[in-house]
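Retro notes (design track)

What went well: tokenization of the new backbones is finally stable.
What didn't: we kept losing track of which sequence belonged to which structure.
Fix going forward: every design gets posted as structure first, then sequence, in one message. First example under the new rule, 278 residues:
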């Protein structure tokens, strides 16, 4: 038995590439974070766009607190040990009745990270159901190789380059990962995953937090950064990100400018990325 995950859950994660969702926040706590997000959206005049979509834990104190939530880190520690860095965060927000979808892909194909131990903690701030377009995963696909991908830049594809696996995916094998408000799904770096459009009356809101052990390396760029959120970093492969003391803390905002631009350069490498900056 780990700090949060049972032996069965750890075994399931190793074998399938994901485990059953765990509760990390009460519904009330999740709703309070959603209210902070939506207040920010109102202040911006719409959904988070452009640079706000990458590493916004450097901008918002409440998001910086969420990536350091003890229960989330305890679950990650059960999988990768006590030294934990947060490499990035990404919001995945599907408006009610929207055509936005995510094609089948492996995160490991694009991020330039040399590790097989990255864990994503996908925190739901509204119900992720089959109707609202929850994630779907192919069990065990994380144990296979990196599959070939192609870029589509499809209008409604939520991925940076509309990337999709370029070989047939066995849809019959896919498992729907339903996640309740305040729960989190945990999944492995190489797992093949996708999601359908949101056909529900509510927004489908989730924050994906990407955790790595400090021995991971960025091999697609000379410089990268991450936040040390638990334990030690004896390797120094990533510049340590500051923790904001308040929303838009100037030191963290300045760091964010460099870090999110570098992250986009990595994610769009090999494409005409300057065209995709909004
Ligand atoms: Ni993904």
């Amino acid at each position: 038995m780990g700090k949060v995950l049972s032996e069965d859950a750890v075994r399931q994660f190793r074998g399938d590439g994901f485990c059953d969702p765990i509760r990390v926040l009460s519904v009330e706590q999740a709703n309070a974070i959603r209210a902070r997000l939506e207040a920010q959206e109102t202040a911006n005049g719409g959904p988070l766009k452009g640079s706000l979509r990458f590493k916004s834990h450097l901008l918002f104190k409440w998001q910086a607190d969420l990536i350091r939530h003890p229960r989330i880190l305890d679950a990650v520690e059960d999988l990768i040990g006590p030294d934990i860095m947060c490499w990035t965060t990404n919001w995945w927000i599907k408006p009610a009745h929207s055509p936005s979808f995510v094609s089948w892909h492996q995160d490991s194909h694009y991020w330039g990270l040399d590790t097989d131990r990255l864990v994503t903690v996908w925190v739901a701030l509204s119900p992720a159901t089959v109707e609202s377009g929850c994630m779907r995963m192919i069990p065990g696909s994380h144990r296979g190789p990196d599959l070939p991908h192609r870029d589509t830049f499809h209008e409604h594809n939520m991925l940076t380059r509309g990337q999709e696996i370029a070989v047939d995916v066995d849809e019959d094998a896919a498992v729907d990962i339903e996640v309740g408000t305040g729960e989190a799904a945990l999944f492995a770096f190489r797992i093949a995953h996708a999601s359908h459009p949101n056909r529900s009356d509510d927004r489908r809101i989730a924050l994906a937090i990407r955790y790595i052990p400090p021995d991971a390396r960025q091999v697609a760029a000379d410089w990268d950064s991450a936040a040390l959120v638990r334990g030690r970093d004896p390797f120094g492969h990533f510049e340590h990100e500051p923790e904001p003391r308040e929303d838009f803390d100037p030191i963290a905002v300045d760091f964010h400018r460099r870090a999110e631009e570098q992250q986009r350069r990595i994610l769009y490498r090999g494409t005409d990325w300057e065209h995709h900056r909004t």
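Added context from the reviewer: The pocket of nickel (II) ion is lined by residues 105, 107, 193 (CB under 6 Å).
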